[in-house]
# Entry
Amino acid sequence: MAAPTAAAVSGGISLDDLRAFQSAFEDTPAYRQAMNAVCTAPVNQVSLNRRKTALIDHSFSVHLPENPATSQKNSGRCWMFAALNTFRTKAQLSMNLESFELSQNYTMFWDKLEKSNYFLENILKTLAEPVGSRLLNFLLANPIQDGGQWDMFVNVVDKYGVVPKSVMPETESSSATGQMCHHVTAKLREYSCRLRSAHEGGAKESALRKQKQTYMAEVYRMLCVHLGEPPNGFNWQWRDKDKVFHRAGQITPKEFYDKYVGVKLSDLVCLIHDPRPGHDFNRAYTVKFLGNVVGGRPTEYLNVELDVIKAAAIQQLQAGDSVWFGCDVGKYLERDLGVMDGDLFDFELVYGTTEGMSKAERLQYGHSQMTHAMVFTGVDLDEAGKSRKWRVENSWSDKPGNKGFFQMSDRWFDEFNYEVVVSKNFVPGDSLRALEQPPVELEPWDPMGSLA
# Structure
């Protein structure tokens, strides 16, 4: 190790500090062994607890019928895939189909278009913000990113319905969204610059809105180039699993949803577990500037205790319905095995230390937030009815885990699961009453504003 030449300063690392660090490392054989291992293999492999992996099993006391795992490929559409995966089981039952999939490309097209319009409307709302302000920088950062929240999905479905995957299949850009998002984002930032410049030049609101409409026509055109043009209607017919032929004739996407999916979205509520001080339980929360459809349903969360979330999810699974949820998927995940479990890795053996923050502290200090949405299709309950582990339908293809299905330990749920969408029938009345009050507004950069 080269000796530092700069003189020690207050708060700097001194030569004595470095000698102490080096001595502590070199005098401990376990640290040297960890260095040898981690310099040649990923730390997750080195720290994997083999005794724990040997105990992995995929049996669950409550286990719903499942479809083959889907794949979002190189896109961030997990929230859409998860939501549509809860819908397709309803469609399969109503049409007596062996297998079925709804178009994720269709819902993404409308989400991208609506997000673009939502962004430009927010630019018009914030014309007084100076260039470089925190809010304006936040709005410009990711105007049409792939991620979303449950209420944003509801907005798309309420306005545009759904279609079978065969009616609007995947394209290269729907499966790998990077270039499309790059080019549309570049135009949106340009549009925001032009609108703000026109405002500074004295343009009236009516002129700015007319200008915005020409921009939206360009965005629509770009999305069609990448994703194809979404249908206003389509001819639908199918042969069911009993070989009986059915013909619905010409049908709109909204009619298809109402007739063959039929989930009453107003009956569902998004519960979150946010234990930060000052974020009261049995209170509704929203996030400023978080949405996609102008005039649509606002993104709203009901913050409840952890046992309320778990009980609601278990009851919904026992009633035969899967559960959409949002979590911080990257923490203590073994992707190939498809297991989320804090005990699966022994990082203390590798580093000589472990992470020590609470769930609330991780949220406060930027170490955790919702990053991914999936679906619960099962839960393993002990003799007392307490959850032990959870069965998870992911959208990362059928390669990882148990043919694309993962499992989550109950302790991992406690620490890194943040939200579930359940029927209001499974939520206590004293919690639901919080929805009768105006929601508390969180700042746009709050971790509860992250998109799965």
Summary: The radius of gyration is 25 Å. The mean pLDDT is 96. The longest helix spans residues 178-200.
